[in-house]
Amino acid sequence: MSSDWLPRALEESRARGFLGPQPIEPQIAHAEGFAQCWEALHTAPPARFVDLGSGGGLPGLVLLERWRTEATFLDSMAKRNNLLIEALAWPGAPGGGQVVTARAEEAARWPEFDGTFDLVTARSFGPPATTAECAVRFLKVGGVLIVSEPPADRTEERWSPVGLEVLGLKAQGRSRYGAGFEVLVKVAPTNPLYPRAVGIPKKKPLF
């Protein structure tokens, strides 16, 4: 780590109540599991990734520090995003990070975001169907969605193959790097219907 900006940012995020009270080191290790999932599939970092519901900055800040690539931090709450804007301006912070305040259902349809990302990450964003629907349009075909998962549940219990097929996603199965992660690949273009209007993916999940 080239400077103390990352632990400083996460400590500040925790102090403001945007992260859990547990020590920062295990939270960083958990975030690095997202990177390990990607690196098990690809030798190079993603050219561009978006962190859905960035909140307190995990896993996005950790991945930006690790990969030094183009990162978008997306959250609907401005006060949480304000911290990320501050942190990305501190000495030692990598370049390439941008912070966007918007709902995923809307931002996924913006021309600059629609089908342009190699990777979408989601930590505590929502239930599987909601996360998949909100994430899929951001991805290029061949892009990857990585979701932090409960430790015990199996893939087929949470990620319906039929529901995922509607979205053009295919589950690759559970990966474990300390914590559990679901890895999904976009195998077909996104149907123009998805994602549906703000709030609908949660109120009326596809599976």
Task: Describe what this molecule looks like in 3D.
This protein has 207 residues and is an alpha/beta fold. It has one domain: Vaccinia Virus protein VP39 (Rossmann fold). The protein contains 9 helices and 7 strands. It has helices at residues 5-15, 24-39, 60-67, 78-88, 104-107, 128-136, 155-158, 161-167, 200-203; strands at 48-52, 70-75, 97-101, 117-122, 139-149, 169-177, 179-186. Strands 3-2-1-4-5-7-6 form a 7-stranded mixed sheet, with helices on both faces. Helix 4 (78-88) links the parallel strand 2 (70-75) and strand 3 (97-101). Helix 1 packs antiparallel against helix 4 (78-88). The longest helix is centred in the N-terminal third of the chain and has 16 residues, at 24-39. The protein is globular, with a radius of gyration of 16 Å. The mean pLDDT is 95.
Which characteristics define this entry?
207 residues, alpha/beta, globular, Rossmann fold, seven-stranded mixed sheet
How would you briefly describe this protein structure?
This protein has nine helices and seven strands. With 207 residues, it is α/β, with parallel strands linked by helices.
